[in-house]
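re: ur question from yesterday

yeah so i grabbed the chain u mentioned. its 87 aa long if i counted rite. heres the sequnce exactly as i have it in my notes:
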Amino acid sequence: MTPTTTQTRHPWRATARTVLAALVGALSLVPTVAATTGLDTVPAVAQLIVVAGVITRILAIPGVDLWLRRFLPWLASAPRNEAQPVI
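ran it thru and got these structure tokens back, copy pasting raw so excuse formatting
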């Protein structure tokens, strides 16, 4: 059996990690962004977190990962020379 990447084997775990990282990063910038742009609403920040999570989840789908390996190998979950994930 060919080994798969952890992002492909556990896509929701990878999504949760990315959402957490995006949340921490976004929270650290909220005061600066809000003061600079006059943006003082929570929905904009929530949108940033949700969009980051959705994109990460889509990238963790095995079929998407195979497509990335073929057409955008620099964005795939593993280098081209590693074994492809089993679907």
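noticed a couple things. The first helix runs from residue 6 to 9. also The radius of gyration is 16 Å.
anyway ttyl
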